[in-house]
Amino acid sequence: MKKIYVKEEWCLGCHLCEYECAYANSGIGNIVLALKDKEIDPNVKVQTDGKITFAVSCRHCENPLCVSACISGALTKTAEGPVTVDKTKCVGCGSCVMVCPYGAVRLTKEGSANKCQLCMNNNFGEPLCVQKCPNGAIVYEEK
Amino acid sequence: MIDFNVAPFEVVRDYDKCVNCRVCERQCSNEVHHYEEGFGKMISDSTKCVDCQRCVCLCPTKALKIVPNQNSFRPNANWQQKYLTEIYKQAESGGVLLSSMGNPEPFPVYFDKILINASQVTNPSIDPLREPMETRVFLGAKPQTLQRDEKGNIVTKLPPRLKLSMPVMFSAMSYGSISYNAHAALARAAEKLGIYYNTGEGGLHKDFYKYSANTVVQVASGRFGVHKDYLESGAAIEIKIGQGAKPGIGGHLPGAKIVGDVSKTRMIPEGSDAVSPAPHHDIYSIEDLRQLVYSIKEATEYKKPVIVKIAAVHNVAAIASGIARSGADIIAIDGFRGGTGAAPTRIRDNVGIPIELALGSVDQRLREENIRDNVSLVVAGSIRCSSDVVKAICLGADAVYIGSAALVSMGCHLCRTCNLGKCNWGIATQRPDLVKRLNPDLAAERLINMLTGWNHEIQEMMGGMGINSIEALRGNRLMLRGVGLNERELQVLGIKHAGEV
Amino acid sequence: MKKYLLIGGSIATEGAIEGILSVDKNADITVLCGEKRPLYSRPLISYVLEKKTADENLYFRGKDYYEKKGVKAVFAEATAIDPTKKTVLADGKAYPYDKLLVATGSKSFVPPIKGLDGVAKKHTFYTMDDMLGLRADLEKGGKVLIVGAGLIGMKCAEGVKEYTDDIVVADMAPRPLPAATTPEAGAIVQERLKDIVTFRLNAALDRFEGNKAVFASGEEIDFDILVLALGVRPQVGLLKEIGAEINRGVIVNEKMQTSLADIYAAGDLVESYEAVGGGKRLLQLFPSAYLGGKTAGKNMAGEENAFLTDIPMNATKLFGVRITSAGLFVGEKTEVVSGEDYRAVYTEDGVIKGFILIGDSTRAGILTDFIRRKRPILNAEITKLLSDRDLSLYPEEERRAALGGNYEI
Fold first, then answer.
1. Which one-letter DSSP state was computed for residue C117?
2. Smallest CA–CA separation between B12 and chain A, in Å?
3. Is the pLDDT of residue B489 over 90?
4. Between B141 and which of B159, C150, C151, C391 could a Cys-Cys bridge form, CB atoms 3.0 to 4.6 Å apart?
């Protein structure tokens, strides 16, 4: 399946991916309206080890621990490959957060689990973080 | 002390659109932008802005624009604001003014006053999508006669040549003046396109020896990074006598940029200034030049063409005539608009001549002396687009060098502050955090795209003229007409005025 | 064609089905569902009681899960295994197997308490039927006494709160969640919940007198509805009868094999390898059941697979207080209190043995992974692990490979 991969040697730590992600998943058509005066809670997070930066988002694991631990069926490993979240089923127990070794699943302010769904649940086509990364540090490809 | 400096630009932020993402702040090496807690918003210090447009391009909401500062000194057609500002600078520093990239002054651009012909009725044009169209060129000396065996194979021993898929090469830009990633991109693009890039005077990084089939290695007055393997790893060797942006003077890469691999590649100690002398101290005549040409040929067993690169100066035709007799295979001429990583402003803006005029006179002179086939001519100094390429070829060039255009395709916005070493586009810098901004995978693709586009356009223009090879276009001045040019200019260019038959 | 027979019908069974099908796509699988319901998620019952999710969401993989997977579901309780004939008896019918999984889980523990028989409305809180029964009573109103302040009792209380504020939670232990938390963390939880739930702690139940609980101290509590949440016990009967090795639970190896040929076990009834302590342990956790079941399934289908990364862990939100923990609370403790958040890690010999977080649990999975993989830690890293832990804590090579797609942590 096509997945998001990170080429950390090219990450500039500009954090554009975070804002583009927040916009893509805001459900709001205008980027200014989507981001203005809002604290963003994106599915991708730029992290650093002090020397280098890298954008972390869901890896869509072959054997996703988050799905194994999900008591509500909100997290599903689909046949096509992506791990999806059904917020309406989530009860916010936080088991997924407890087990994800990437720290890529989080609980939103509203209390339900959320994570990268490869922009499959919006209209941006290819994941927007990939499209907008200025330096090819986030790619979306088959491996 | 009074601060006489006036910001040349003003950063204008549309606060309705700004979402305080701080991308501009993180991306500006000149520290123009920052988030002001007190105001709860982003503010910009325009005095630090160089107008490189990095923030404008990366702003996700397009909230930024950079405009000329409307603050104006009292208008004066003679004492323009620029001169006053420069005087203030020098009154403060006592130093030579430095500038980067090509001469930006409003001298005539002859390419813009030349128009290209097209076929109508009597000589049909050619559709390049349906008919073969040859943009391949070979650079080097051409034998006066060719002998073939009974099967038609050429038996004449041909001099060494460069084979180009299209009449464009990347001109000399040293590792040091531009970044490792910029070099990587140029090398990869040259390989993919079937053309050449040029090391400039900075030596060749060991990582790039694998591109040697598409590399021109340069030998300049400082001889930095020159050794046997270096010479052997070039497809051709270029002796650099001069550069269009700073004819008559040498180069100076400050010690601060001689770090790490740059120092290793140049074979000079870290932190030491890399000073290229104004002349080659072993070349004071054409005869001396001939000695160097043949030394290099000896060293490389006559397998590689030798290029001699000069700046376009007043007596360029006579010099070219000498070079054509020196044993060199290719002459490269760099016009006064050619770029640079750093040059004294007065030199850059006032020395040299336009490449169009230099080319016109050199080609005519070599033809008159019947030595045109001794050499190929490569011209440089602000080739901006495919029609500039076509016009240059019609004026007699075999191929062109592009430098600035290549950098622009990778992201350069000609802010002309390469000399500060803080290039926000990761091109003219050695700062690791900035260098990594240029992903060579993307940059090489952009270079390839640009030249692929140019090549299509060149074919279209050639087809329009009913010409199907660069060979038939070269020196074909009948395909050009001048507009708004005077008699002398037309004569030097060797072309007729528009409307003349 | 190999016949797979699974006794159970909950999470370990689901894991086993996934495991078998990952190896043998057209496997002939039969499930004997003792609970006589399609697959559902037991931990969800409190959320359904709490009206946080709808009844139909209990069937968290869809009501037609078995059909979708091509599995035969028989709603009958297995009563005996015949290991020589390789059959299982259920409802008087013998079901043959080549590979058998026993995933009978556990059952609510109800101790013999004097007077219990005289209590009219009494419930346990473990299965869907338990919840439905309790809810029917709650909807009629009345005072509630929950005996047991462990996770089951407390989650039940949270649900009950939707129906009445008149709840008392009693436990012999001095604090709520005695097993799932440390004394420090338990005290914090207790403090946060003190205005929400009425506790009777250190309270040993002596007897019931009708709808009145009498404690050893002499205190009496009247109630209308009683919930006994005193833990669960592994259902090992089927295997015990045929001589499988059993301690508190059924002993299985890292492939989830019992001591008997071709019989596997997974889920709440097993004592399996636990990575922090390094020995066999009764874990009784949702992810352990799923992953243990999956390992069993793969091995049953012929693919070698070892489950070596199981550890105790728990995540829940109780009356708005989030509690996340994993591993064992042994070794040297490092604590941080930051606003509403309490965080503690337990380290021994340069590795993390356990952690407990009250409040923010952002990227807790990284801590869990440190435990699971016994990743060495430097002292300097503990601060980061306890604050804004992220992928920079993993070795650079591993992180790069994981993000670059050449490796899965």
1. G
2. 17
3. yes
4. B159
* Sequence ranges of the domains in chain A: 1-57+117-143, 62-115
Q: Which ipTM did the prediction report? A: 0.96
Q: What is the mean pLDDT of residues B354-362?
A: 98
pLDDT of C380 higher than 80? no
pLDDT of residue B50: 96
pLDDT exceeds cutoff 80 at C379: no
Mutation pick from C372, C390, C394, C407 vs chain A, by most beta carbons of A within 10 Å, is C390
* The CATH number of domain C3-40+57-107+232-300, selected from 3.50.50.60, 3.40.50.300, 3.40.718.10, 3.40.50.200: 3.50.50.60
Instruction: Please indicate whether chains C and B are in contact, defined as at least 3 beta carbon pairs under 8 Å.
Output: no
Residue C13 clears pLDDT 80, i.e. is over it: yes
Q: Average per-residue pLDDT in chain C?
A: 95
Q: What is the pTM of this model?
A: 0.92
Interface check C287 vs A, CB under 8 A: yes
Token couple for C246:
């059993």
Query: Homologous superfamily of C322-404 in CATH?
Result: FAD/NAD-linked reductase, C-terminal dimerisation domain (3.30.390.30)
CA distance C365 to chain A (A): 4
Contact (CB<8Å) A35/B22: no
pLDDT in tens, C207-228: 999 999 999 999 999 999 999 9
- Per-residue pLDDT, A96: 98
Name the residue ranges covered by the structural domains of chain C.
Answer: 3-40+57-107+232-300, 116-228, 322-404
On whether the A1-57+117-143 domain is CATH 3.30.70.20, my answer is: yes
- Give, in words, the CATH class of B137-141+165-497: alpha beta
Q: Where in chain B is the domain with CATH 3.30.70.20?
A: 9-72
pLDDT, tens only, C168-205: 999 999 999 988 899 999 999 999 998 999 999 999 99
Token reading at C51? 């009206």
CA dist C162 → A38, B38, B329, C58, C242 (Å): 33, 46, 92, 18, 46
Query: Do C116-228 and C322-404 share a fold?
Result: no
Contact (CB<8Å) A68/C391: no
* 8 A C-beta contact, residue B82 and residue B76: no
Question: What pLDDT sits at residue C209?
Answer: 95
The type of residue at A132 is: K
- Chain A residues closer than 8 Å to C314 by CB: 98
Stretch B183-191: mean pLDDT: 98
Residue numbers in A near B22 (CB within 8 A): 15
Smallest Cβ distance to A35: which of B21, B436, B439?
B21
State the count of interchain CB pairs (< 8 A) between A and C.
Answer: 129
Q: What is the pLDDT of residue C356?
A: 97
Domain with CATH 3.20.20.70 in chain B: 137-141+165-497
Asked: is C116-228 a CATH 3.50.50.60 domain? The reply is yes
Query: What's the CATH fold of domain A62-115?
Result: Alpha-Beta Plaits (3.30.70)
pLDDT at C405: 86
Confidence of residue C383 (pLDDT cuts 50, 70, 90): confident
Å between C203 CA and nearest CA of chain A: 29
Question: String of b and e for C38-49 (b: at least 16 CB within 10 Å)?
Answer: bbbbbbbbbbbb
Contacts by B158-162, CB closer than 8 A, 24 or more apart: B159/B305, B159/B329, B160/B236, B160/B302, B160/B303, B160/B304, B160/B305, B160/B329, B161/B305, B161/B329, B162/B138, B162/B196, B162/B216, B162/B235, B162/B236, B162/B305, B162/B330
CATH topology of domain B9-72: Alpha-Beta Plaits (3.30.70)
Give A48-89 pLDDT, tens digit per residue: 999 999 999 999 999 999 999 999 999 999 999 999 999 999
Q: How far is residue C182's CA from residue C312's CA, in Å, rounded to a whole number?
A: 14
Cβ pair A93:C364 closer than 8 A: no
Instruction: Report the chain B residue with the minimal C-alpha distance to residue A134.
Output: B58
